[in-house]
Write a sequence for this structure.
């Protein structure tokens, strides 16, 4: 912020560029078209908002993890998705730690893990769970903001 000697607080000269982690469940219970659409929309939102987005696509293992560039396409990301097995969240949250500080983490999933929901990395401020498809609220972590999404 910058402040004149007398008067109101004025906004600073530099805007904050949000850092967002996005985890997308690619397990067999998630439809292929919905998975591709989720990756496409994540790339579009990143481009449109200018937010730095660290994307993790996972099933039982991490399929893709990395920062989205301005020209990253869904096809590039989807070329790494080769295993559509069960759902384990722990490897995805471990991969998310590589991103460092994150303002928000958004996890798109049907909410049915084969393991327990891991703790949010300490460098992340909040978790938003977007439930897609045939979802379950039975396993959701305490304190997460939950939204139902159609992809």
């Amino acid at each position: 912020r910058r402040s004149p000697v007398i008067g109101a607080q004025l906004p600073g000269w530099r805007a904050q560029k949000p850092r967002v982690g996005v985890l997308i469940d690619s397990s067999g219970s998630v439809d292929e078209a919905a998975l591709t659409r989720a990756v496409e929309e994540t790339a579009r939102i990143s481009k449109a908002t200018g937010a730095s987005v660290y994307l993790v696509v996972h099933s039982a293992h991490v399929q893709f993890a990395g920062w989205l560039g301005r020209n990253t396409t869904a096809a590039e990301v989807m070329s790494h998705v080769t295993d559509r097995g069960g759902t384990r969240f722990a490897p995805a949250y471990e991969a998310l730690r590589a991103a460092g500080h994150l303002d928000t983490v958004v996890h798109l999933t049907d909410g049915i893990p084969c393991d327990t929901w891991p703790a949010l990395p300490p460098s992340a401020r909040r978790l938003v769970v977007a439930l897609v498809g045939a979802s379950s609220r039975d396993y959701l972590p305490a304190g997460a903001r939950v939204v139902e999404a159609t992809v």
Notes: The two ends are 39 Å apart (CA to CA).
